[in-house]
C-alpha cells in the first residue's frame, strides 16, 4: 500500500473523479455548478465572520482585533480577540465553532482550488503524466462547449454580485438582530454588583468592599497585552481593565469621597501611560499628594521627569519668556490674557490692552523674566505713557 506507484494511481483516480463531478459537463451546467459553489462559499464565509464575533459591539469588534505593544499596533490572536468582551461560556463556544468551521471551509476550498488548477493546467499544456486531460480540454477549452472556462469565470462574477446583494439584503440584518439579542443576553448574565439598584443614593454613604493590600504592578503586563490600563480590583477580586484607545479618545473623571482612593487610581493609570505606552503626562496636583511624586519619579527616566513646586515662597523654577524675541513675548502675553481677536464686539475693547502688550514687549529683544515684565509694566513712566489713551 505504501508503493509510490500505487499512491500515484490513487491521486490520478481522485483527479478523474473531480473532473467527472465538476468539469466534464455542458457549459450551462458548468455555469450553474460553479455559480452555486461560489455563491455558497462567499455567503458561508461572510456568515462565519459574524458568528466568530457574535454578540460583540462594533467598537469592541474593532478594538479586539488590534493591540498596542511598545507603541505599535499589532494584530491580536483570533482566540484572544473573541474573548475581548468576556462572553459567557456558551457564547464563547459558538464563536469558537465559527473559527473552526471557517478553518475547515478554507481547507476544503484549498483542496478544490488545487484540484481545479492541476486539471486546468494539465489540459492547457496537454500534460498526460497524471491523468488523461482530453475530456477536460474538450469541456473547458474548445468552442464545441463554448469554452467552458469562460462559463466558470462568468459564474464567479455573477456569484460575487449575487452574494453581495443577498448578504446586504438578508444576512447582515439577520446577524445584526442576533448580535443585539446575544449582547443583551450577555449583559443580563453578567453578575450585577450588590451596590447597584434603582434608587438615588449619596456616593458619600457607599460602603465599598475592603481589599487586602496588593501590588498593582503585577497586572501591568496583562493590561499591556490587552492594549488596556489596569485600574484596580472589583468586588469579586477580578482585575479591572480599561481600553487604552478609549482612554485616549474620551475625557475621564474619577469621582469618590475623600480617602476612597481617587489619587491612587489616577496614579496607577498614569504610571502605565508613561511606562507602558510612553505617553507624556502633565499633572497638576493642588493638594500635594504625599506619594504621587515619588511613584512618578520611580517609573520615569530621570531626564524625562520635571517637578515644579508652585507653592508660595518657592523660588522661580520656570521661565516661559526665556530667549523669546519681542514678537514672541507679545504673542505670549496676548494669549495668556485672552486678548486675541475673536470676531466679536469685545475685540474693540481689547484694542488698548493689546497695545500695552505690544509696547511692553518692545523693551525686551532677547528674553525676559516675569519679574522684569512686571517691573516695567508698573514703571510710572511706562504707565503714564498710556494714561488717557485707553
Extract low-pLDDT stretches: none
What order do the helices and strands follow?
Answer: HHHEEHHHHHEEHHHHHHHH
Supply the helix-strand structural class. mainly alpha
User: Gap between N and C termini, in Å?
Assistant: 107 Å
Major sheet: 2 strands, antiparallel
Number of H/I helices: 16
What overall form do the CA principal axes indicate? elongated
Query: Major sheet: order of its strands?
Result: 1-2
- Count of extended strands: 4
| Average pLDDT over all residues | 82
Helix content: 55-70%
The whole-angstrom Rg is 36 Å
Strand proportion, as a percent range, falls in: under 5%
Question: Can you give keywords for this protein?
Answer:
about 400 residues; mainly alpha; two-stranded antiparallel ribbon; 4 strands; elongated
Give a short synopsis of this structure:
Helix content is 55%, strand content 5%.
What does the model show?
- It contains 16 helices and 4 strands.
- It has a two-stranded antiparallel sheet. Strands 3-4 form a two-stranded antiparallel sheet.
- It is mainly alpha-helical.
- The chain is elongated, with a radius of gyration of 36 Å.
- 55% of the residues lie in helices and 5% in strands.
Amino acid at each position: 500500500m505504501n508503493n509510490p506507484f500505487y499512491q500515484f494511481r490513487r491521486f490520478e483516480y481522485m483527479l478523474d473523479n473531480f473532473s467527472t463531478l465538476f468539469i466534464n459537463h455542458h457549459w450551462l451546467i458548468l455555469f450553474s455548478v460553479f455559480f452555486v459553489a461560489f455563491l455558497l462559499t462567499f455567503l458561508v464565509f461572510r456568515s462565519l465572520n459574524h458568528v466568530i464575533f457574535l454578540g460583540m459591539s462594533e467598537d469592541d469588534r474593532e478594538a479586539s482585533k488590534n493591540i498596542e505593544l511598545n507603541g505599535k499596533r499589532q494584530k491580536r490572536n483570533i482566540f484572544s480577540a473573541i474573548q475581548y468582551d468576556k462572553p459567557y461560556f456558551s457564547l464563547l463556544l459558538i464563536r469558537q465553532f465559527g473559527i473552526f468551521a471557517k478553518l475547515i471551509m478554507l481547507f476544503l476550498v484549498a483542496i478544490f482550488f488545487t484540484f481545479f488548477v492541476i486539471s486546468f493546467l494539465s489540459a492547457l499544456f496537454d500534460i498526460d503524466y497524471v491523468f488523461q486531460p482530453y475530456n477536460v480540454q474538450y469541456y473547458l477549452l474548445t468552442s464545441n462547449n463554448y469554452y467552458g472556462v469562460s462559463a466558470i469565470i462568468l459564474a464567479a462574477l455573477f456569484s460575487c454580485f449575487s452574494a453581495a446583494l443577498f448578504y446586504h439584503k438578508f444576512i447582515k440584518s439577520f446577524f445584526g438582530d442576533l448580535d443585539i439579542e446575544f449582547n443583551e443576553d450577555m449583559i443580563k448574565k453578567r453578575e450585577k454588583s450588590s451596590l447597584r439598584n434603582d434608587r438615588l443614593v449619596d456616593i458619600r454613604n457607599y460602603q465599598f468592599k475592603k481589599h487586602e493590600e496588593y501590588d498593582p504592578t503585577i497586572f501591568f503586563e496583562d493590561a499591556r497585552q490587552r492594549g488596556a490600563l489596569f485600574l484596580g480590583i472589583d468586588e469579586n477580586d477580578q482585575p479591572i481593565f480599561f481600553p487604552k484607545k478609549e482612554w485616549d479618545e474620551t475625557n475621564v473623571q474619577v469621582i469618590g469621597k475623600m480617602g476612597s482612593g481617587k489619587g491612587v487610581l489616577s496614579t496607577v493609570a498614569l504610571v502605565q501611560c508613561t511606562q507602558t505606552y510612553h505617553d507624556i503626562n502633565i499633572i497638576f496636583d493642588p493638594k500635594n499628594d504625599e506619594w504621587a511624586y515619588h511613584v512618578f519619579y520611580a517609573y520615569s527616566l530621570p531626564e524625562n521627569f520635571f517637578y515644579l513646586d508652585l507653592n508660595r515662597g518657592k523660588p522661580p523654577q520656570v521661565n516661559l519668556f526665556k530667549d523669546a524675541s519681542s514678537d514672541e513675548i507679545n504673542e505670549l502675553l496676548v494669549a495668556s490674557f485672552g486678548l486675541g481677536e475673536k470676531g466679536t464686539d469685545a475685540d474693540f475693547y481689547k484694542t488698548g490692552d493689546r497695545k500695552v502688550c505690544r509696547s511692553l514687549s518692545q523693551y525686551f529683544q532677547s528674553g525676559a523674566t516675569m519679574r522684569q515684565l512686571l517691573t516695567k509694566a508698573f514703571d510710572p513712566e511706562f504707565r503714564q505713557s498710556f494714561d488717557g489713551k485707553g
